[in-house]
Amino acid sequence: VKTRTGLARIIGFAQTIMGGTATFFAIFLFYNAFNIKTMFGFNTAETVIYVWLLIIFGILSLISGLFLFFEPQR
Amino acid sequence: LEEPHLKRELGLARATMLGIGGTLSAGNFVIIGYAASLAGYAIVPVVFGCGIISLFTMLSYAELGTAIPLAGGEYTWVKVAYGGFIGFLTGWFEWLSNMFYAALSAIGVAYVTAYLIPQINIPILAVLVVIIFSIINLKGIKETSNAQTVVAALVLGILGIFILTGFPLAQGGQSTISPSLGLVGIFAATAYLFELYLGAEAVAAAQAEIKNPGRNIPIAIVLSAIVLISLYTSLVFVAVGIVPPDILSQQSSPIAFVAEQILGPAGGVLITVGLAIAGLAATNEAILAQSHVLYAMSRDGYLPKGLCKIHKRFCTPHIAIIVSAFFTVILTATGLVNFVVYAVNLGFIVGFTIVNFSLIKLRKTAPHLKRHFKVPLYPLTPLAGIVTAAFLLIFIEPDVLILGLELGVIALLVYYIRMVGYSRIRIAFGGISMGLGFFTAIVAYLLGNNVIVLQGASPLLKSIIIWILILTTAIQFAAGLLNVTAPDR
Questions:
Q1: Is this prediction's ipTM beyond 0.95?
Q2: Are the beta carbons of B429 and A63 separated by less than 8 Å?
Q3: Residues B125, B128: Cα–Cα separation, whole Å
Q4: How many CB atoms lie within 10 A of CB B488?
Q5: Nearest CB to B436 within list A11, A40, A60
Q6: Please, which contacts does B96-99 make with residues 24 or more away whose CB atoms are closer than 8 Å?
Q7: Within 13 Å and on the Cβ side, how many CA atoms surround B372?
């Protein structure tokens, strides 16, 4: 049980960070912060799709990660 | 909080004043300026049209209010008609609409006050109004319909003076109805001013306090609608008859500005004081209403139980009030009048549409329900309410529509988390995580085989991205497995 709880905490933390990073990356991409859009050579139409994908990916990962991180102990 | 224990002491006159008083918010008199910029002199028929559109649904409120005499208004009726998610959604949007309405009323108070004291900071004053009335509600106030009747009568009196003295002076301009933005401007102004008549449904919500509800509720609703349509139409007729729409739209408090042209500086002060009092009363009502909705939804198990906790000393739903106040303060701090107006309209358009559908459904599924009042010209009247409200949706600002969609998705999520159960949600998210893992694995594969090309990326950056995607895949799969095999709470 302890191993599972520890693993759930680690994976949950990693997934939450990943979700948060993806969401922030979407915001940076939208505003072309740090010239990200230029760096990857995305045009406007591509950017919109990537921003949506990243936001959906990020939010779902975040929720799933938080479920794992705050998993109640048996 | 439970209305069935209240005494039936409101007669027809006071019930009518309740409907009138519910709509007299300071925000209504601020937004007339922007609407005039959209519709030009056609604002007069626009205001009249908004009243008629609102009346379609008010008749449904009258029928349902007498047929289902239970506390909770539209939330309860929809729960009876549809139950489940639709009932939850109605309560959710009712809460949000009242929150937006509280914010709009507070911002309205700040705007009309700024007309007299231009130095004040509008968002700060509006936030202060919300905080003060939230604290007052926390400590508990008696819902004195007497006070509301007095406030409504006072504001009606002041507006009556404004209209009667301004009517002979109103001339020119309005004879040529030429909207500045054409037909689109007229419809946009209608969608914008839709909230002008909101609040009249308070009569149906207070059914437990009204004497002889079967007779008085429908008459009070129709009477208050007639008074309000006459009042607002005459008001804008006088306003654009004295001050052209383009100048009116530039004023922070358009009606106070017109009053100053008619009655001198004293007129401006009189209107400002009247509107500020009305705005404060409306803010208080909206804060009270939204905390009641949160309380009822929590009591029914739709929201966390903590929200229906009652304070031991003050006997008020303190957690619900604090949560409501928190979101209202954030919204009020933006000071964005137009955004808040459209948000109020969106919430009520959704609510009105569901109420009309509920009426149609209950006529079919519960034909033997005792109805003291029946909507005339059924089913044309509720259908007209649905069609006109849905049509106005087209003219709501896209930003607000997106916000509405997001709030609907959040509602769906909250509902399923509460209703479906923790372990099933965990299993669902386990599946989602594995799906995301599968997706990132495919992206990594396509990127590695140059099917997806990142034009501006160097080979080093590309290989870093591929490794990040592989790591992401592993984490997502592991998370998926852990969620699927999660212990039941």
A1: no
A2: yes
A3: 5
A4: 10
A5: A60
A6: B96/B343, B96/B347, B96/B407, B97/B344, B97/B347, B97/B348, B97/B351, B98/B286, B98/B289, B98/B290, B98/B293, B99/B286, B99/B290, B99/B324, B99/B327, B99/B328, B99/B331
A7: 17
- Give the position of tokens 């459904």: B361
pLDDT, one tens digit per residue, over B400-430 is 888 788 788 888 877 877 777 777 788 888 9
Two tokens, residue B120: 């004040």
**What pLDDT is attached to residue B439?**
92
Lowest mean pLDDT among B129-133, B147-151, B193-197: B147-151
* Chain B touched by A61 (CB under 8 Å): yes
pLDDT digits (tens, 9 = 90+) for A57-73: 998 999 899 888 888 76
Q: Provide the shortest C-alpha distance from residue A30 to chain B (in Å).
A: 16
Q: Return the amino acid letter for B86.
A: I
What backbone phi and psi angles, to 5 degrees, belong to B369? -60, 135
Partner residue opposite A61 with nearest CB, options B436, B478, B487: B436
Distance CA B165, CA B262 (A): 7
Average pLDDT for chain B: 84
Q: Is B473 on the interface with A (CB under 8 A)?
A: no
Mean per-residue pLDDT, B195-216 = 76
CB neighbours of B408 closer than 8 A, spacing ≥ 6? B89
CA-based nearest residue in chain A for residue B429:
A64
Residue B119 has pLDDT above 70, yes or no: yes
Tokens of B223: 């009477």
B57 to chain A nearest CA, in Å?
37
Chain B nearest-CA distance from A11, in A, is 6
- Asked if B472 and A18 come within 8 Å (Cβ–Cβ), the reply is yes
Q: Which amino acid is at B440?
A: T
pLDDT reported for residue A70: 82
| Residues B248-280 as b or e (16 or more Cβ within 10 Å = b) | bbebbbbbbbbbbebbeeebbbbbbbbbbbbbb
Residues in chain A closer than 8 A to B487 (CB atoms): 71-72, 74
> Which residues of chain A have a CB within 8 Å of the CB of B476?
15, 61
